[in-house]
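Hi D.,

Good news: the full-assembly prediction came through. Inputs first.
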Amino acid sequence: MNAPATSNKENGAVQQLHTDAYDWTNQCVKCGYCLPACPTYESMGVESASPRGRINLVKLAAEGKIDFQKDLSGPIELCLGCRACETACPVGVPYGHILEAAKEAIAPYTPKKMKKLKKLALVHLFPYPERMTLLGNGVMFYQKSGLSKLVRSSKLLKKISPALAHLEQALPPIESPSKRFKPGTVIPAKEETRLRAAFFTGCIMDSMMSRINRLTIELLTLVGCEVVLPANQSCCGALHSHQGEAMQAKALAKRNIQAFMQIDADVIVNNAGGCGASLQEYEQLLADDCEWAGAAMDFSKKSQDISQILHHLGPLPFTEEYRGIVTFQDSCHLRNVQKVQKEPRLLLQSIPGIIYVEMEGYDRCCASGGIYNLLHFEESMKILDGKMNDLNKTMATTIVTVNPGCQMQMNIGIQKDGAANHIKSMHLVEVLAKACGLK
Amino acid sequence: MEQVALDALSQIIPESRMFLDLAERYCYSYDASFGEYLPEVVLQPINVKEVSELVKLANVHKIPVSPRGAGTSLSGGPLPVKGGMVLDLTLLRDKLIIDRENMLAIVSPGVITAAIHKKAEEAGLFYPPDPSSSNVATIGGNLLENSSGPKGLKYGTTKEYVIGLEVVTPTGEIIRTGGKTVKNVTGYDLTRLIVGSEGTLGIVTEAIIRLIPKPQSRKTFVAHFNHFIDSGHAITSILSSGILPSSLELMDQACIRAVESYRPSGLPLRAEAILIIEIDGHPLAIEEEINKCADICRAKGASYVKIAESEDERDTIWSARKLVSPAITQMGPTKISEDATVPRNRIPAMMERLKQIRDKYELNLVVFGHAGDGNLHPNIITDKRNKAEMKKVELAVSEIFEAAIELGGTLSGEHGIGTLKSPYMEMELGINGVNMMKKIKEAWDPNNILNPGKIFPEKGQTKVVLVT
Ligand SMILES: Cc1cc2nc3c(=O)[nH]c(=O)nc-3n(C[C@H](O)[C@H](O)[C@H](O)COP(=O)(O)OP(=O)(O)OC[C@H]3O[C@@H](n4cnc5c(N)ncnc54)[C@H](O)[C@@H]3O)c2cc1C
Ligand code: SF4
Ligand code: SF4
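Then the structure:
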């Protein structure tokens, strides 16, 4: 397998900022409708932390009035990329594209320390499924061996990095690799076959949350899907796009398109809002690449979130009641990019025994934002505190999410609040699986 | 700005709320209108004491001060045209108290207007002024621009609801005007003077606003007209029949077509006008009134009339109106939104004038607005990078204002004068009228530090300049 090409495209990126991105920024009429939707504007209270502010700074940078490194990078780095502003904008300014163009243009200026961390994760880790598996196994060993208890009680990690310390505690228990479905496997539908679904395993989901992947596959078979796990699939590239590494994102996209398009599946299913959004945007990512554009479009059209498939093919064969008050935190990329909002709610509400309560601010980012919580720990925690406040008001005993980042972020919030004995953070699939009697 | 002044400012406000770097300053260089003016410093006070000290200091050093809310002004109100400092008042938002017994709200200026709507409603009360920017704009900005929206017809503008203020004067004193009583005839009515003064006479740091009981119910209908003139007759007949709708909104054919091509929703492309009429009040009364209005529309030649029977149907009717803004911005990136207002019986005449202006300059001009109170929004859609067309726009805008004033109307129904309409003030008020206003400004603000460059034209400025 080839490693994705590394990037060296400063000129190209800056050029794009002057052409496409500049045109996009000119669509903004500065009405400010996006301000109330933006979590960083709310928590930081300055215009430069708002979508309107960021768009105009990109415009000014393109006009040469401010400097990329000195003036633009700060405000852009502090954006969560949740794209709630896009949903709120009445004139359809493509903020996501502006953000990515800006990130690419400022990438060469990222501070050294951050660059190292990003490089480690983006270039050397996420693109390699086998390294991710190794890491997952490592973490499992760490959790099972009692090492984790030792580390926690020594508070060592906290001294090195509070962000990592929180993340370490937020990791779910990792399932043994023996339970994992192997790449290349075809899992037959439980009864009559209604659809052939190719499953996108994802990098973090596959390594750290393989249990959720297994349950996803089992749920799919319950509603009549024959599930295929294409070999050679890789990370979706979302984190790379978000960090301004468009070349790598494109390389990863092509690898996935190749892996999936060989298989004649009716749908391509994923269970992580962020990855799903990225899969749906392959179409735009590769629109200018005449060799790949057509395939990318087909690929994106076939991509669906697990909640859409289960809702469409349902009802699920529930066997158990789910007790307790349940609330749902939207994944920004599922809600704002894929525009999927009602399916997860309808699925939750269909579970026998469940008491569903809507949380105020359910549509606001939890500030996990890819690896935002690692890069900007304090800002992230400020937003998370607000979220926990809203969560507490619902009296929920389970908070449901559809993205590994959100799920871990909610775990961090719960632990920070010392609420672990009365609130659980679960993936939608876990809740549905439990009610279907899957273990 | 001199270093001593900056040092003195940093004595009043902590570093975290004082911005000198370029990116932050640029973020306060614009509003929702035109023009870009870079302030020298941006400050975010959080209480009246800080505001007062900052203004006092500005007076000593003769630094221009531009107060700012959410920056949604369409007339350039918060732009720091003379440089100096921008006072961002959005962090002054600690107070939103609903006093149910006295039917009042006491609010800080940075509170978002929609939050007041929500809180009032929870208490069974109603704050009627409803600019379409209410989810974003601050109550401070609303007050200083005297904003309103579709409900202005029945309920009036912001000024009808403000009964008391705490104000920092341009020389830095803290004063109170009005109070908590609905009746108050003690001396000059400074409250009314400050409301709508666009931040040139004082900085509002707290407001007492009047609330009214929430109307029990409402009903909405839509009417299509194949001839514009018939819709005009329908409007005047409804208003003279003794019925006062809570809103009476109009869209012209260009709007209808724009909405239909943006998001097809079955609007009649042949119609020259659509009216949307809403009535609120007692359920029995509105039932009778809405039917009467519908009959009037039919009698005046409406080709189609539909009364909403459910909340869904009401939403469908209103969605056409709400789609106007997004729809027309698809026609070009620059939108010049005017709010020339005429006596309502002159609406057909004004529409005719607008049509002539559109044809003369060959511009993309659409009209919608609050027809019930004569407040029309002619919008010209263009691209500010096209300088030749922008020059035509400038001429067209001048003619729009002339037309409004000739027909007995006014330059602004709700967006304010700011930087954009100041050249036309004399046209409406006459030289003595403007001079009287200037004298008031000079008495309040001897050093002309508070929001200079607004409302009053600069010497020799006779028409709007959109591109240079
Ligand atoms: C999409 C859109 C729709 C709109 N719809 C409407 C509408 O339907 N009706 C309507 O009337 N307007 C409308 N407007 C115009 C605008 O929203 C209003 O004028 C609003 O009141 C401005 O509020 P703001 O908080 O944004 O104030 P800003 O724009 O920041 O400031 C407005 C003025 O108030 C002054 N100011 C602000 N706060 C204070 C304070 N505390 N003390 C002293 N001076 C202060 C500023 O100096 C400036 O002169 C619309 C604007 C947009 C962009
Ligand atoms: S993407 Fe999210 S954080 Fe970034 S500007 Fe938009 S709303 Fe704000
Ligand atoms: S809502 Fe859209 S047009 Fe309005 S300020 Fe935000 S990005 Fe610009």
